[in-house]
# Entry
Amino acid sequence: MDADLAPYLDPHVQRLQDTEGCCMTGQNARKKISHAARETDALVSDLMVDQPLLWLGIAFLGGLFFGKRLFRGN
# Structure
């Protein structure tokens, strides 16, 4: 099949199948997910150190919301 396509292909163009990074493999996906998880963990830990009143306020409002929904009379 390559012999049939040879006249149409530029000899300086590299085949996609020959390159390592042409497809996302399971290893690449695992690395990207792991990197995203580490970045998210770092962001949350920074926010918890830098913004404790924000988190306390969010927890308080969430508690009020869920408490109101739980103990509301039907």
Notes: The CA atoms of residues 36 and 42 lie 10 Å apart. The radius of gyration is 27 Å. Residues 12-72 form one domain.
